[in-house]
Write a structure and sequence with these properties.
The protein is mainly alpha-helical. The protein is 60% helix and 3% strand. The chain has four helices and two strands. A two-stranded antiparallel sheet has the order 1-2. Helix 1 (26-53) runs antiparallel to helix 2 (67-86), helix 1 runs parallel beside helix 3 (100-121) and helix 2 (67-86) runs antiparallel to helix 3. The protein is elongated, with a radius of gyration of 24 Å. It starts with 25 loop residues before the first helix and ends with a helix.
């Protein structure tokens, strides 16, 4: 027969000790919000500039190259990759910087708001049908919209996976 061991009745199983993060100070909270608003404004600016720039082309030898489209998409990728490298994967308790996923979501959200606003509504805000939208219904504008949204989605997914990995490694200890 096998020996059966019993634990004392007064011993209660405990969970592993977890690190308690310090609560952010009011100054850190305000700076986090300001960084997120700055990233939102940068996303809006990149979206507006890209909406006007994507139609530029360089003509050489009788062939036109859509370099404005490439520069516009490059600006979006540069903003999102730059913000992703500058922001921490997970925000520490007392840190003044937001987490990477939140920062990239604000920047990408600003870009999407600017592009959709210039696509459907047009610069002076109204819901009346008019012909002064910036992004026309052609291959360059549709490429700018679809590829830009795909790039933003890919980079947000990349930040989400990095945050999940960091949370799992923090939970493992």
């Amino acid at each position: 027969m096998s020996a059966v061991t019993k634990e004392p009745a007064d011993k209660v199983p405990t969970e592993p000790a977890r690190k308690v993060l310090a609560a952010p100070s009011p100054v850190a909270r305000i700076s986090r919000v300001l960084v997120l608003v700055l990233l939102l404004a940068l996303g809006l600016a990149v979206g507006v500039v890209g909406s006007f720039l994507h139609r530029a082309e360089f003509t050489t030898g009788g062939a036109g190259w859509p370099d404005g489209l490439l520069l516009s998409l490059g600006g979006l990728v540069g903003l999102l990759l730059g913000a992703g490298e500058l922001l921490p994967v997970l925000s520490a308790g007392a840190s003044a910087l937001p987490a990477r996923l939140g920062g990239l979501a604000c920047a990408a959200g600003g870009w999407v708001v600017a592009v959709i606003w210039l696509t459907y509504v047009g610069p002076p805000f109204s819901f009346h049908n008019k012909g002064d939208v910036v992004l026309a219904n052609d291959w360059r504008s549709m490429t700018f919209l679809i590829v830009g949204m795909a790039l933003a989605t890919f980079l947000l997914y990349r930040a989400w996976i990095a945050s999940l990995d960091a949370k799992l490694s923090r939970a493992r200890g």
